[in-house]
Amino acid sequence: MQLLQSPAVRIALSVAIATGLYGLSFGALSVAAGLDLLQTMALSLLLFSGGSQFAFIGVVAGGGSGLSAMSAAALLGIRNGVYGMQVNVLLRPPRWRKLPMAHLTIDESVATATGQTDPQEQRRGFWAAGIGVFVLWNLFTLVGALAGNALGDPATWGLDGAAVAAFLGLLWPRIRAREPAAIAVVCAVVTLIAVPLVPPGVPILIAAVVAAVLGLSGLGPATEGLEPDVDPYPDGAAGEPDGARSGVARQSEGAGRSEGAGGFGVALQSGVPRQPGVPRQSGGREDA
């Protein structure tokens, strides 16, 4: 019961339920596309990536070859590799955990983990969301595949809306300025326009490209935007074991905190704290 008091675990469970229910649609659509029960379950157990799975059965249902289906699924799965690099830096798992974590690195687990500021909550969020989605996704895939035609048209159940609502619940509280809110709205509109025009899973890639272009265009001051997740190196530089930093580095870190709310990207000029009332020298210029 104590574990359920964790904010990250509570968020992860709600996301897992919403996403797992969407597995009903996949199970029913997979069987309707011509895959049998074993093939359907193999996709959910081994591929375990909703966008890639829907892309795979979409190509199969449209009469495409197995190679085309696998290519479409692999294209959409590229984002999970990018997630993996972020998770490796954020959580720094021991080597023996990397294989199971790689399989559980999906949109939901990464979003839940990066939404936390405490390192322990990040780990709990990742594992709770990853395992929760894996169990419920496969369970409801099985139910959908077995029920088949008895479910009718899965689109009428609105289960895809539940998954979207879960992601919106993760994202919206972290938007604290007009510029990122505007980018989010633009990406949502682009996604809605792209849905009827491109294969399943591709709209999210298009929206990601749009978000990257708008973000790199320099909209708004650097101090505005999403609420920061966490320092990607909370205990030291990448690859350093915990506690490996020198006392000078820790002193510099403390000095940086004493400077006030400077935001990200404020480089320390020296490891020695500045005396109150004494301006800091920076390249022949005094900081106000």
TrEMBL record:
Primary subcellular site in the record, as a coarse category: membrane
Region of interest (Disordered), residue spans: 225-288
Membrane topology: Multi-pass membrane protein
Subcellular localization, as worded in the UniProt entry: Cell membrane
Alphabetized InterPro entries for the sequence: Brnchd-chn_aa_trnsp_permease
One Pfam family, short name: AzlC
Keywords: Cell membrane, Membrane, Transmembrane, Transmembrane helix, Transport
Example of a GO biological process term: L-valine transmembrane transport
Protein family per UniProt: Belongs to the AzlC family.
Name listed for the protein in its UniProt record: Branched-chain amino acid ABC transporter permease
